[in-house]
């Protein structure tokens, strides 16, 4: 599965701790991240991570475009709900696309834990079904 990992600055350590805790599971998947998150995650966990631009420079939009191409299977995005982000429209757009394409999304540790445990239990195997996409062009 292709998994995107993203965290706002105040939540980066939370994401590092989370990914470290579930490293063995994450290690079995293709990982993607926005720029700074990916840099820190690979340094701190040793995992191999494909990096996009930093979030404020378009990274959220790049991940959104992967969702629209059916190339992302899960998004773990530890948002900071208490700090205004200059690129808030990009953040909203990414979350919206998760709903458009029914991509599993977790925005905090509690829901991320359920997704990751579900991933290792096969609950997300339906993602491999080719015709799962919501199509608006039929
Ligand atoms: O801002 C972000 C997500 O909206 C994250 O970007 P960075 O990983 O580059 O800090």
UniProtKB/TrEMBL annotation:
Gene Ontology cellular-component annotations: cytosol
GO biological process: methylglyoxal biosynthetic process
Top-level taxonomic group: Bacteria
GO molecular function: methylglyoxal synthase activity
CDD domains for the chain: MGS
UniProtKB keywords: Lyase
Catalytic activity: dihydroxyacetone phosphate = methylglyoxal + phosphate
Active site as annotated: 60
SMART domains per UniProt: MGS
InterPro entries the record matches: Methylgl_synth, Methylglyoxal_synth_AS, MGS-like_dom, MGS-like_dom_sf
Domain MGS-like: from-to ranges: 1-138
Positions annotated to bind substrate: 8, 12, 34-37, 54-55, 87
EC number per UniProt: 4.2.3.3
Family: Belongs to the methylglyoxal synthase family.
PANTHER family: METHYLGLYOXAL SYNTHASE (PTHR30492)
Matches recorded under HAMAP family: Methylglyoxal_synth (MF_00549)
Protein purpose: Catalyzes the formation of methylglyoxal from dihydroxyacetone phosphate.
Name used for this protein in its record: Methylglyoxal synthase
């Amino acid at each position: 599965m292709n998994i995107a990992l993203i965290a706002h600055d105040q939540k980066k350590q939370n994401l590092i701790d989370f990914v470290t805790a579930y490293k063995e599971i994450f290690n079995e998947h293709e990982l993607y991240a926005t720029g700074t998150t990916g840099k820190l995650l690979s340094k701190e966990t040793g995992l191999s991570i494909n990096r996009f631009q930093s979030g404020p420079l378009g990274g959220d939009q790049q991940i959104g475009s992967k969702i629209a191409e059916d190339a992302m299977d899960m998004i773990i995005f530890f948002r900071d709900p208490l700090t205004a982000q200059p690129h808030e429209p990009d953040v909203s757009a990414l979350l919206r696309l998760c709903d458009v394409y029914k991509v599993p999304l977790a925005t905090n540790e509690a829901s991320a834990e359920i997704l990751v445990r579900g991933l290792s239990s096969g609950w997300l195997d339906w993602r491999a079904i080719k015709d799962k996409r919501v199509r608006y062009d039929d």
